[in-house]
């Protein structure tokens, strides 16, 4: 079995992503590693969740005070990696991030469970605190504030959209002779090439 090259890498990604979503052993198919770089060039990586595949890219959400958001403001270039181990498949993505529109952020925030919305208000993401009680008090404060009303999106909470310049698909093969296909965007068109493992 080898990777079937398609003209558009998003057609191949969606095929693999749908397979991952249908695989019971994959608890969170939307989980992806996001790698960013700080102003001194130090890389940082963490797991975030893919929330949309649209406009030729990948969208995720975060507190704008988070480390990842600060990094992306300084340097919008970033990388993603999906690893669906039970399927022995991996997808690597590199590209440039832009912040989503207020309308997009509002729509996604409104779709979240109310407790998650309250959590967004309560968390001063990436800032230190002394004891768990501080966070719990903030959760209680905002839960009471919005107990009888809809929870608005905080101004400090939004999303980023990564538009890829390269997407690489990796399929495990015996004896580490893995199948790899890299798509590169050149002049608005996708070009594909198989890579040695």
Can you offer a commentary on this structure?
With 197 residues, the protein is of the alpha+beta class. The protein has a domain of 132 residues: Pnp Oxidase, Chain A (Roll). It is 27% helix and 37% strand. Strands 1, 2, 3, 4, 5, 6, 7, 8 and 9 form a nine-stranded antiparallel β-sheet that branches. A hairpin with a 7-residue loop joins strand 7 and strand 8. Helix 4 packs across helix 5. The protein is elongated. The two termini are 15 Å apart. The model has no long low-confidence stretch (mean pLDDT 96).
- The CATH level-2 architecture of one domain is identified as Roll
Q: End-to-end span in angstroms?
A: 15 Å
Low-confidence stretches: none
CATH topology of one domain: Pnp Oxidase, Chain A
The CATH homologous superfamily of one domain corresponds to Electron Transport, Fmn-binding Protein, Chain A
The CATH class of one domain is Mainly Beta
Specify the structural class: alpha+beta
Element layout with pairings:
Blueprint: H1 9-21, E1 31-37, E2 43-49, E3 52-54, E4 57-63, H2 67-74, E5 77-84, E6 89-99, H3 102-111, H4 114-122, H5 132-145, E7 157-171, E8 179-186, E9 189-195
Antiparallel strand pairs: 1-2, 1-5, 3-4, 4-7, 5-6, 6-7, 7-8, 8-9
Helix pairs in contact: 4-5
